[in-house]
Amino acid sequence: MITRDDIVQAIRSLGVQPDDLLIVHSSYKSIGGVEGGPRTVAEAIVDAVSPGGSAFAPTFNYGNDPYDPATARSYDGVITEFFRKLPGAIRSLHPTHPIAGIGPAARDIVEGHDKAQPFGLGSPCWRLWERNAWVVLIGVSHEANSVAHVAEERLQMPYLDRRRTAQVVRPDGSVESVTLRRPGCSDAWAGVIEAPLRASNAIRDGSLGSAQVKAMRAKDVVAATEQLLRDDPTALLCRNAACDACSAARRMLEP
Predict the structure, then answer these.
(1) Is 86 buried (19+), middle (13-18) or exposed (0-12) by CB count in 10 A?
(2) Distance between CA 166 and CA 163 in Å, rounded?
(3) Residue 255 scores a pLDDT above 80
(4) Which residues of 149-185 are buried (b: 16+ CB within 10 A; e: fewer)?
(5) In which band, very low, low, confident or very high, does the pLDDT at 164 lie, cut at 50, 70 and 90?
(6) Is 87 a residue whose pLDDT tops 80?
């Protein structure tokens, strides 16, 4: 049975230290048995950068539910659902792609997200890229690596100009519909982003139970993704004919 200390050591063995900034994408099922369940994993993620550091997790709503930061569930796995409920957690106010953070830098990273694009200037992922945070993938690959979206924003990819409607719960309990820009599809990212990061030795490998763990720096992720997009603006788009997002993106890239 995997313990809280085991998880901390697995993350720190990849170079993460107290005082660091860290964003973790995760799959609980990939790990195997954990003493205390997914809450233990969420707590250990915070421990890995404590004291002094700050940990973050995606708690995306994807527009599935009217967004109230206190009650809207995370659709990014059970670990993130426990993470957003930990004592001291602060969740950003973006109605489709909120990020939760714990630690002394959490408020600075997540505040103002309601005034920013999901991954654009002023968003939590943009700020984590600016500060070169660690990105750790536990049992998932780059299709979950949200920081890579920052590259699309920095290059102002034309296909980002797609819209979706989401609902927000206001303080008086009313529900308001808002129109937001929609980020690109990430279904094809696993192999596409992995290759250049491997070529530059930017990934550190480890394991946690039965899960593969990868750690890398946010600036390496964004730099590699930007180069992919410069070489081929369609590089991040999937080949699934049923994917409306990528089909629309290809049309938007046509001269």
Answers:
(1) middle
(2) 10
(3) no
(4) bbbbbbeebebbebeeebbbbeeeeeeeeeebebbbb
(5) confident
(6) yes
pTM of the shown model: 0.94
Q: Any idea which residue has 């991040």 for tokens?
A: 236
**Could you give the number of structural domains in the chain?**
1
Q: Is the pLDDT of residue 126 over 90?
A: yes
| CA–CA distance, 58 with 123 (Å, rounded to integer) | 12
Give the confidence band of 100 by pLDDT, cuts at 50, 70, 90.
very high
Residue range 24-47: average pLDDT?
97
What Cα–Cα distance (Å) separates residue 20 from each residue in 26, 88, 148, 216?
19, 17, 19, 13
Q: Are 84 and 77 in contact (CB under 8 A)?
A: no
User: Residue written as tokens 């901390």?
Assistant: 8
Strands 163-169 and 175-181, bridge-based pairing: antiparallel
Q: How far, in Å, CA of 240 to CA of 74, rounded?
A: 26
Q: What is the chain's alpha carbon radius of gyration, rounded to the nearest angstrom?
A: 18
CA distances from 45 to 68, 103, 108 (A): 24, 11, 19
Q: What residues make up the domain containing 140?
A: 4-253
Q: Averaged over 123-146, what is the pLDDT? A: 97
Residues 6+ apart with CB under 8 A from 151: 221, 222, 223, 225, 226, 228, 229
Q: How far is CA 184 from the centre of its chain?
A: 13
Alpha-carbon dihedral sign for residues 151, 200, 185, 83: negative
